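Chapter review. Work through the record for DNA primase before attempting the end-of-chapter questions.
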Amino acid sequence: MHTTADRKCISKYKVYMSERYTSLAPAYAVYYENYYPYEEIVEWLTYHGSVLTQRREWSYEIITATDETFVARFREISDAEQLRSILRFSSKTLEDFKLKLDIGPVYTSDMSQRKTQPEFAPCERELVFDIDAGDYDRIRTCCAGPAMCDKCWRFMELAVPLLILFCRVHGFNDYFFVFSGRRGLHCWICDARARKLSKDSRKSMVDAFNIISIDTGSVLRESYDHSNWLCRLIHDHICIRFFSQMLEEQNWLGGGVEKHLAKYSKESLLTELRRADSALLSSAPIFFFLHITLCIYSCLVAGGYPVTTGSAKNSDGRFASLLTTFIGKLTMITSSAARWTELELLIKDYDPILAAIRVYYTYPRFDVEVTRGMNHLLKIPFSVHSKSRKISVPFPPAPILKTYSIDTGVLQLGPLDTDDSLPRFLPSDAPTVDDLLSRHTEHYFKYRTYFSRIVHQVAAPYDGT
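Structure tokens for DNA primase:
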């Protein structure tokens, strides 16, 4: 038996362990009771009954009153009422509840048969892209790790017109974009043909758009080719529209760059550039400068671009001359925008170099395995992020395309792309469960209405054409 002292210790332990539960449960309970879009979610994921509900994997992350969390996988949902009964709970009785919902693929057999069917395997899944701000830590200077601000969001926004272009190139029409709830963006491509793609086909499709495939600091693999029509289109109509704003906000070319370079002679700097010195790469402005000079040097050495006449007798000499000129400019001007302007003037005859730099510093970092894999779980829209308490809401592309003056004729927009019923989405403006708990619901319901329009399009019966 427990003594009085034991019971007091246990009571304190439970109170301590349930602090997170106590904080989250009331808001989640109200959200699941009154605001979660049960009918729309199920209608979307079953595609008007064309997907067998018993073969679709649902997954829940569950929290207990003592703050334990665990994941339940390979669950099935038959209809909206069953989903409602699973999510609804009473915080007053300390019931476990679902922190978030993930969706997996459609399998060859029912969820209940997964242990008895030897050929139980995924056979259908939306083509998805999961883009995370954390993957931009090599180039973003405003935040790092799990942090996310509206400046970071520009990196996510650029992925929107790019993925619309991806869909147009591959003939997909049913897609939408969702804020992840904290620091990322999800793109769901729902065409019947997209859902049935093999892993190899998915990888082949994303590889063609995966221009920045490796960027570790010591290794960079950028496959931008200025002579390729798709690369040129991506640069000329998308990346260049974002670059100037990002350059100023991230201050990539600002700071005392020349102080870091002063200890190198021209000859030793060339050696360091060739080796991509890891110590220098640890500083974002330095990395930007080195990337520029590496591009210049590589192009000159390769002989791919004409070397203008001058005192230099070879490519190394020409490179050193350009470098000296540029460093001289850096000592007189300090802003990123002004330094970039000087660089553009300096290498104005080398458009492919400038284009490669713009693409590198703006282009999405794709997680190829998420897109390629058939059994990857992805958070369902309108889930709540338990740390930010923000709701994962879909948002329309139109305000983004307008903000950055994207040539919409090139993208061949569909009905959802031109929807301007909502303003430009920013993570700082995302609805939260606390808003709903306080009955500030108008903002949230605008996203619900937009999602209803999405479901009406993407879940429409497939006519086989």
